[in-house]
């Protein structure tokens, strides 16, 4: 259940109630692909890092340890010891990004597992069953993630099939939620808008899937090769056709600047591996801009990484020490870096919500876009 509390321009401040707790939006969902954040961050740490929602990967968990194993362990919440909301993606993106060999039919997709080449079939029903076994708060519909750019006629056929798949997802999820032994009978379903960078196809597809009255809607197939401006133009084209009373999720995005721009255009939820992936390689986001911790200039710098940050890393360690850890490939470097970046992202969302609460988001957006995108 989504409640729009306030709006400034297109930017929205809301609350999203789920069976696992209420999410204050706009929010960033921290990506724990295989039921853990890469970089040695536990579910206990995530609470202190202000994480509201964790995102886990259907395809990876289906392959290892197996969704049947997680079901036997009581579902993802029990398995990970994380009791706030969890969103599981459908596996669709991995099918199209990892599988070198795949065959798409109306029933679904047959593809080779990226680990051992074993043939796997996944369609709408299979994706829903796996996600039901995981017991996540929010399940994503199974869709085809179209490359950018894609031919217009192929994109048109693809979104028509994705809409048919979505109707099957909805039917299967309703059936699974009614089963007496289902882990989460309140599991929600989000549909995914596709259409490459063709505004007319995006709008048509959004209108078709909005008619299915789902729990939320995502914009998929962006941040996969198009320019940032093309992404922003696509959001602007689609946003007026997204239901006002449902959460809106921009999949796989992005940098702090992308988030500021997305909120400005009416997006409520974001996810991206960027904060954790960049952190593991020494690229850290701060309130002064982006720091590359391998730089020589930090060698004897005794100041905290970010003097305006309250995270455990900034409260306890110097830039010089962090640089040293990264230079010697010490595992602790990754943990401290990821800890900081996740705290930074979740604090950025907190400040965005505060600005929306006070009607000052326009000024906040104008102030921080030029700062947060620059390399120091």
General description of the model:
It is an enzyme of class 2 (transferase). Residues 252-258 are annotated as: RNA binding. Pfam families: TGT. Keywords: Glycosyltransferase, Metal-binding, Queuosine biosynthesis, Transferase, tRNA processing, Zinc. There is one protein chain. The chain has 376 residues and is of the alpha/beta class. Helix content is 43%, strand content 19%. It contains 15 helices and 16 strands. The strands form 4 sheets. Strands 4-5-6-10-11-12-13-14 form an 8-stranded parallel barrel, surrounded by 5 helices. α10 packs antiparallel against α15, α11 packs antiparallel against α14 (331-357) and α13 packs across α14. The N and C termini lie far apart (41 Å).
Uncertain segments: none
Percent range for β-strand residues: 15-25%
The main sheet orders its strands as: 4-5-6-10-11-12-13-14
Largest sheet: 8 strands, parallel, barrel
* Gyration radius, rounded: 20 Å
Percent of residues in helical segments? 40-55%
Secondary structure layout:
Blueprint: E1 2-8, E2 11-18, E3 21-25, E4 27-31, H1 43-48, E5 53-57, H2 58-63, H3 67-72, H4 76-80, E6 86-89, H5 92-98, E7 102-104, E8 109-112, E9 119-122, H6 124-134, E10 138-140, H7 152-178, E11 188-193, H8 199-210, E12 216-219, H9 228-238, E13 248-250, H10 256-264, E14 269-272, H11 274-280, E15 283-286, E16 289-292, H12 312-316, H13 319-327, H14 331-357, H15 361-372
Parallel strand pairs: 4-5, 4-14, 5-6, 6-10, 10-11, 11-12, 12-13, 13-14
Antiparallel strand pairs: 1-2, 2-3, 7-8, 8-9, 15-16
Helix pairs in contact: 6-7, 7-8, 8-9, 10-15, 11-14, 13-14, 14-15
Keywords: Glycosyltransferase, Metal-binding, Queuosine biosynthesis, Transferase, tRNA processing, Zinc
Family: Belongs to the queuine tRNA-ribosyltransferase family.
Pathway: tRNA modification; tRNA-queuosine biosynthesis
